[in-house]
Design goal:
eight-stranded antiparallel beta barrel
Amino acid sequence: MNKINRRKFLKKLGAGTGVMAAGVFLPGGVLTSGRVLQTSKNKLKFRAVGGLPQGAFPSYASYVVEGTIDLKTHSGVATKNVFAGPPEAMSTIALPGLSRTIRITEVEDSGSVLRVKGVVDDRSQLRQGESPLVDITIDSGRDMASSSFLNSEVSLKLE
């Protein structure tokens, strides 16, 4: 087994932490506002998580909305998934019938707020009365996002 040089390890760890804390250029992208990753001049990645149900009740599931947006063409792909467990102890088990793939068709940029519109690709997964049209609001200034889940609005935290 190879021995680990503690001094070299701590130097590398400290240098990496310093780069991330400063928010400077990282390989593959730039960190903007701590939560939204801009991978190039026109590409933006996001991930937002919230607990279900919301309000005064304890969360038993995690609602995850994530995607990639091309700001130049105003298009992209996003996914909505529900995983077992609250956000602080989320598992990798997706609850069946609640995953959606969204084709982004429109992006409206108002400074720190992006309003994203799209359509669910596979409409056969939709429940009766569920709209195939999707709206996602990403507010990087407040590190929040919002989207609908089974026709009710859900607040999410950007990660």
